[in-house]
Each structure stands twice: as C-alpha cells, then as structure tokens.
Amino acid sequence: MQIREIEAKDNKTIEQIIKRSLESCDLNIPGTAYFDPQLSNLTQYYNLLPNAKYWVLVNDRDEVVGGVGIGPFGEKKEICELQKLYIKREYQGFGLSKKLMEEALNFAKEHYTYCYIETMNQLQTANQLYIKFNFKQLTNPLEGSEHNAMDTWFIKELS
User: What is the DSSP letter of 140?
Assistant: First the structure.
C-alpha cells in the first residue's frame, strides 16, 4: 500500500468509494459529503484551496482503495478540517485509516494549530480512531460548519 497525492485519474474512483461508504451506512442524505458539489473533482478542489491536500491510498496495482483530505475550516486561519476519510470495505480493519490519519495530521501540523472533524455518532469505528489520535469531542459544531446532518464533532490541538 502506498499513499500519494490525488491525481485527476483518481477522481471518479474516490467519489465512488465515498458514495458507496455513505450508502452502506444510510448516510446518502443532504448535509453529508455525499452531496458536496466538489465530490466529482477533488483534485481541482484541493488544488485551489490554500494549505490543503487530498491523499489517496493505492494498492500494488495503483488502484485507489481510500483517501483523506485536509482543508481550511471556513475563515479561521488556525483551524483545518480532516475531510473525507474513507476506505473501501474490503480494505478496512488493517490499520490503513491510521496511516491516512498520520499523513494528514503531519501535513496539518505544518499549517494549522487545530484540526476539526465533523462526523456521526453511529460511525463508532471512525470515532474511536479520532479518540486514539487524541481528538476531544465537542458538544456543538464550530461556527461555520457546512455539514448540518452531522451530530458529532471533534477537535485536536496540533503540536
């Protein structure tokens, strides 16, 4: 497995991974990443944002099996957001999310003071990962949140 920055050829595959993952949890609803307008062209989206990147995880055949992004959170220069961390179901359970998180957080530390995550309480495996990475759960979303279907929020001080 290798982690690399997203390329235009990866857009369709990562879009399908994200959509299938959300569908499997009945989260293909408005207010989730499923309806993000940039979902079909993450390469262009992240290239246009300051201090932002999206990485894909590829197998030995260079097939995309997952991904994660870091982007600025609203107008707050010191806060980034961990975005779109998804892995194909058949590749889950092997510690690959941890590797993606490490890549994303190492980049985030270079540009931001805090990292924010919006998620759902029902996604317990993902939430346990965030807690393992010392994210602290919040009782409310940060002001400027765009995913109004989310019901669980975390933040981490980067150092």
Answer: S
Evaluate whether 84 touches 46 at the Cβ level (below 8 Å).
Answer: no
For 10-150, where are the alpha helices, taking DSSP H only? 11-24, 42-48, 96-111, 124-132
State the angle between helix axes of 96-111 and 124-132 in degrees (0 to 180), rounded to the nearest 10. Answer: 50
Residue type, 75: E
pLDDT tens-digit readout, 72-117: 998 888 999 999 999 998 998 899 999 999 999 999 999 999 999 9
Q: How much is the pTM?
A: 0.92
Nearest to 119 by CA among 108, 135, 106, 104: 135
124 CB-contact burial (10 Å; exposed 0-12 / middle 13-18 / buried 19+):
exposed
- The structure tokens listed for 86 are 């998804």
The alpha carbon of residue 72 and the mean position of all alpha carbons in its chain are separated, in whole angstroms, by: 12
